[in-house]
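Continuing the series of single-chain predictions for the mutant panel. This is the parent chain; the variants come on the following pages.
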Amino acid sequence: MAEVAREVKRASCFLCHLNCGVLCTKENGRVVKIEGDPDNPHNEGYVCSRLEHDRWKDFEYNP
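Parent structure:
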């Protein structure tokens, strides 16, 4: 079985004007999970339904 290269990066969400702080988990170079960054003073780990229900995938990986 191949080893999975996993990393977590801090980023900002740009799906609306608020630009919430997020943590993006990448596996083998592809984003697989986005969650709120609890250390971000703006959103304190909270995310909207676009991220909470993985609706971001419709934007990110739509051909």
